[in-house]
Write a structure and sequence with these properties.
By secondary structure, the chain is α/β, with parallel strands linked by helices. The protein has nine helices and eight strands. The chain is globular, with a radius of gyration of 18 Å. The N and C termini lie far apart (40 Å).
Length: 321
């Protein structure tokens, strides 16, 4: 899917992208890599997490696979010292019938710290591979969402190993959103979990405050290229965060973070920022050929991609004062 113009016909996709051409060469004044810093994340272990998630099968909202995933993740995060809770609600089933049980998973690290950073990913998968080349598979095929779903979750699973000793004044919350794309038709609503989370945060502000929010989605591609998302760089309140994250990547020598505006993406960062008033950005590589097909499998992902993204976010968060 190097030619992504085909994606632009439908603007109501969970992730709607517009490609803008730009050079890949860097600016002379870009930060120089810091050679002494070594990535503390384990690429092989992170890739193993992605494989384990995918082995659970489809994980769309309300499915047995989602329930298995919740148990798997809860055990993992608790074992490493995270405080796990759920934000439960019901959502309409796009196909009618009974409402679908939803649950955002929240993992708190250093909950005593009253100013916090939200690191998020969606952990549901699309019910069907609706962009598969085979028309029959679009209606009956199995979608396991290695990149579109499992990759962001695997990054958070790997980052959890560093969280108990996370220094600085800020606390960290992982939020795994349900219902990002419980979608069968282009008119079905997206971002159910993040919209619910943002609404509750705005309606009844907690004792703590989120300074920033970072969404990680589709971050496992073997051919990783992450450009700055247009909303994040256009909003005045999020622009400084976006620039800091990409500057952090440059200092670390992570060239996959390209300091150019790329896509306009409709994703979970929109309700976080627009409803919850949490300045939020999206880290995403939308140039992914198996997107929403049966071929979105671990073989198209790389542990090195997962850990490069996690490393950049970790070092950026650690540098907040």
């Amino acid at each position: 899917m190097k030619n992504i113009a085909c994606k632009l016909v439908v603007v109501t996709l969970a992730i709607t992208a517009t490609w803008i051409g730009f050079p890949r060469v860097g600016k002379p004044d870009e930060p120089k890599p810091t050679a002494a810093i070594v990535n503390p994340l384990d690429a092989q272990r992170a890739y193993g997490y992605l494989e384990q998630i995918c082995a659970l099968g489809p994980r769309f909202s309300g499915s047995p696979g989602m329930q298995k995933q919740q148990a798997f993740l809860e055990e993992h995060f608790k074992k490493l010292g995270g405080k796990v809770s759920y934000q439960q609600f019901l959502a309409n089933n796009p196909r009618g019938g009974e409402k679908v049980p939803m649950a955002n998973m929240i993992v708190e690290w250093h909950p005593e710290r009253k100013e916090r950073v939200l690191l998020a990913a969606h952990y549901d998968t699309r019910p069907l591979p609706d962009r598969d080349p085979d028309p029959n598979k679009r209606k009956t095929g199995t979608f396991i969402g290695a990149n579109d779903g499992a990759s962001g979750v695997a990054v958070l699973m790997e980052l959890a190993h560093l969280m108990p000793k996370f220094s600085g004044p800020l606390g960290i919350d992982f939020v795994l959103f349900d219902g990002e794309e419980l979608v069968y038709d282009k008119d079905d609503p997206y971002f159910l979990g993040s919209s619910w989370f943002a609404k509750k945060y705005a309606e009844k502000p907690p004792a703590y405050k989120y300074r920033w929010g970072v969404v990680m989605d589709m971050v496992g591609d073997v051919d990783l290229q992450i450009y700055q998302e247009q909303f994040g760089i256009a909003w005045r309140d999020t622009r400084p965060m976006v620039k800091e994250i990409w500057e952090t990547a440059a200092k670390l020598g992570v060239k996959e973070f390209i300091p150019r505006i790329g896509y306009e993406v409709r994703d979970d960062h929109l309700p976080l920022r627009n409803t919850g008033k949490i300045p939020s950005c999206d880290i995403i590589d939308f140039d992914y050929p198996p997107w929403h097909t049966t071929n979105d499998a671990p073989k198209h992902c790389a542990g090195s991609s997962l850990t490069k993204v996690g490393w950049v976010v970790y070092e950026w968060a650690k540098g907040q004062k």
